[in-house]
Specification:
The chain is of the alpha+beta class. Helices cover 32% and strands 27% of the residues. The chain is globular and about 60 Å long. The N terminus is likely disordered.
Length: 286
């Protein structure tokens, strides 16, 4: 069991002592997630500004760091088009790209089509996975690294560069904005994020981070991709375990992941459950 994890079975859940896993209560977890994460306007350590109006909560990122987004919406058939147009106009005036993160339970039911009609482009859907920290730690208690691999788990600029290098190798993307955002975050609030990089010699082969959301029950796992020649050896599971242990020490109840189809089965075996599907819709100037 992780340090700090409570020895309990959640009320109304199957009891582990009878050999059944403790499952996530979907309704309870999603209600807390909407209230504490999607609907929160507390400033974050990356220096972003959070704004709420009648219809949405949006994140305005610092220039050059990316990540501006509509994170929550409470819309109806009569208000959706107006709210979408207002967000497009706002970011158009700023000359800035933004993402509208659509959750499968958002309303109205045809919100995806309305976003598409307004010029936003859908990206690959992902699964919102939620796991209770205690259960994830228990499930992954034996997850270790293969021979020849070690972990760098520090909060400095050198580890940020290693993490970004691993992501670029795995995903084929330019991670310069992620580098800048993480270095700024570490400088402003080093306790808000944990960085973990798996090293094979001097080569980063897998990397991920955990974001601690203050005043909430949630910590978010990001990254975690493994380079092709090191896949299938348990490195990803080991990184999930290490980050879950960090969350347990700080008293968090839930872990969240926006999971691809490749990582979803691994996470399900680690004690996570899919509670929703998310689809990013992107809008860019011009």
């Amino acid at each position: 069991m992780c340090p700090g994890a409570a020895r309990r079975a959640a009320p109304g859940h199957p009891d582990r002592r009878r050999g059944k896993p403790v499952l996530v209560n979907h309704a309870e977890a999603l209600a807390a997630y909407d209230r504490q994460v999607r609907g929160s306007t507390a400033p974050d350590a990356a220096g972003a500004l959070y704004q709420a109006d009648e219809f949405v909560v949006r994140r305005i990122a610092r220039p050059g760091t990316g990540g501006s987004a509509v994170l929550w919406s409470g819309l109806s058939a009569g208000t959706a088009d107006r709210a979408i147009a207002e967000q497009v106009a706002l970011f158009c005036s700023r000359g800035e790209e933004f993402e509208w993160k659509l959750y499968s339970y958002d309303t109205p039911a045809d919100l995806a089509g309305r976003l598409l009609a307004a010029g936003l482009t859908p990206q690959e859907p992902e699964s919102l996975m939620i796991g209770e920290v205690e259960q994830v730690c228990q499930t992954l208690r034996s997850a270790g690294l293969p021979p020849g691999v070690r972990l760098e788990q520090r909060g400095d600029a050198a580890v940020v560069d290693l993490l970004a290098e691993a992501h670029e190798a795995v995903f084929g993307t330019d991670e310069s904005e992620l580098r800048a955002a993480l270095k700024a975050q570490l400088a402003a609030a080093p306790d808000s994020v944990g960085l973990t990089v798996a090293m094979a010699g001097q080569r980063p082969v897998c990397a991920g981070r955990i974001e601690f959301i203050p005043g909430s029950e949630f910590a978010g796992l990001w990254g975690g991709g493994t380079v092709p020649d090191w896949r299938g050896r348990g490195i990803y599971r080991a990184l999930v375990r290490r980050r879950a242990e960090l969350a347990a020490r700080r008293g968090y109840r839930y872990l969240t992941v926006d999971a691809s189809d490749q990582s979803r089965p691994i996470l399900e075996r680690a004690g996570f459950e899919r509670v929703a599907v998310t689809t990013p819709y992107l809008w860019s100037p011009g």
